[in-house]
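User: Just a sanity check before I run the rest of the batch. Below are the structure tokens for the first item. I only need the designed sequence back.
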């Protein structure tokens, strides 16, 4: 018989409704907790029949059943943090508020009060009961509409959000994260308000309606990070970063807009090794073929992004670049993540408009390369002109400025396409150089 090797993980608790569509509620909470390395437990407040198109019906569980679930979890597990979601009725809000007085762990309250359509989800008595619950909470995470319901303050910009958060602190909650998803602007600004002041967490707004489960997932991510021992501000910073990626790379499921991708960080981490190996394959082919004719004075680099990369540290590249030598092209050192800044920044910029682009390689750009590109009739754009395109280009040009070497960046969504383009360009440049010789 094999010896078991048990693993100990922090435990988090979600007190929320069930979403039969899997994108929100306890399903989203548990998936998010697992993605953050936490063992998730649950106490279900209501059962809903819903999908990506909307809610078709809901049934609130008796408070005695909710009590029994909380007893079962807290009586057996060492809970490190908890969060609340849909509480459905006045009686359920009051029950959770009463139980929260016994909690000796952080509690994140996501006050689910207003639907995306703007409709109120709770009766006025339940809204008032939230004040007692907030008094026991470590953090409240209202969106702009919910902050207005709780405080009467209209949240319409980064100035009014701290005002609403400060008003909410009067309920006794330790801190308030006023979410900016419903506030207009190019940037989403989530503002954390505490007795010591406010802190803003800013991310570019994603052009999508697939935000189903975003509020649940954010609160669950914060609770999971608190259970892992993070300080509150660190937990909020990590959770908002997680959500920005989860919304951008959402699940395209169902006939509605889709749902946030709770596993996006796990999948991104799992893709690192394969991405580095792909860059090594490209590097080996560059050396074997000897693409000296393409190497610029500053050296060449090949960059591979994980499928969900959002920074240069999530891109594998050649440390020290590839240079021309008397015996052909040679890399200075090996492949590692974060080894490129310039080529990685170009690829990141292109991924803002064409997120499935994953590979880029910089080449010299002169008359021979220009003639070769013209003969190939590839789709070519100048850097900065990629916005709004339905299909990615094959090459992006930087014509250079004073003191800056002109550059051509070959880009591709996959390893094979990049290799084919680079080797084709190398051959075309060789032909062009022969034609330009006197």
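Assistant: Here's the designed sequence for the first item:
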């Amino acid at each position: 018989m094999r010896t078991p090797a048990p693993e100990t993980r922090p435990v988090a608790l979600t007190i929320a409704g069930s979403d039969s569509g899997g994108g929100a509620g306890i399903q989203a909470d548990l998936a998010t907790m697992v993605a953050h390395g936490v063992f998730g437990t649950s106490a279900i407040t209501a059962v809903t029949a819903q999908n990506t198109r909307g809610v078709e019906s809901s049934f609130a569980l008796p408070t005695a059943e909710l009590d029994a679930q909380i007893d079962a979890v807290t009586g057996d597990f060492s809970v490190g943090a908890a969060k609340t979601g849909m509480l459905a009725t006045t009686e359920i809000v009051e029950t959770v508020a009463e139980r929260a007085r016994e909690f000796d762990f952080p509690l994140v309250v996501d006050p689910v009060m207003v639907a995306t359509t703007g409709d109120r989800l709770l009766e006025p008595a339940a809204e008032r009961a939230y004040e007692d619950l907030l008094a026991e909470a470590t953090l409240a995470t209202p969106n702009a509409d919910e902050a207005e319901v709780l405080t009467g303050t209209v949240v319409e910009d980064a100035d009014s959000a701290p005002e609403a958060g400060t008003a909410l602190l009067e309920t006794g909650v330790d801190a308030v994260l006023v979410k900016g998803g419903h506030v207009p602007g190019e940037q989403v600004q989530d503002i954390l308000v505490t007795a010591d002041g406010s802190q803003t967490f800013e991310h570019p707004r994603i052009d999508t309606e697939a935000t189903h489960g975003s509020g649940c997932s954010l609160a669950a991510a914060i609770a999971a990070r608190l259970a892992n021992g993070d300080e509150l501000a660190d937990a909020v910073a990590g959770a908002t970063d997680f959500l920005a990626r989860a919304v951008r790379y959402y699940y395209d499921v169902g006939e509605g807009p889709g749902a946030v991708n709770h596993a996006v960080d796990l999948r991104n981490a799992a893709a690192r090794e394969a991405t580095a190996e792909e860059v090594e394959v490209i590097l080996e082919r560059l050396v074997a073929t000897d693409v000296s004719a393409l190497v610029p004075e500053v050296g060449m680099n090949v960059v591979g992004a994980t499928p969900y990369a959002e920074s240069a540290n999530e891109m594998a590249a050649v440390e020290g670049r590839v240079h021309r030598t008397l015996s052909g092209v040679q890399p200075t050192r090996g492949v590692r993540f974060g080894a490129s800044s310039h080529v990685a920044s170009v690829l990141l910029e292109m991924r803002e408009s064409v997120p499935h682009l994953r590979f880029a390689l910089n080449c010299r750009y002169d008359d021979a390369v220009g003639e070769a590109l013209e003969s190939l009739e590839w789709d070519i754009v100048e850097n900065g002109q990629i916005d709004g395109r339905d299909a990615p280009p094959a090459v992006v040009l930087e014509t250079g400025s004073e003191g800056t070497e002109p550059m051509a960046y070959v880009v591709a969504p996959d390893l094979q396409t990049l290799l084919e383009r680079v080797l084709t360009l190398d051959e075309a440049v060789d032909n062009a150089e022969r034609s330009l010789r006197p």
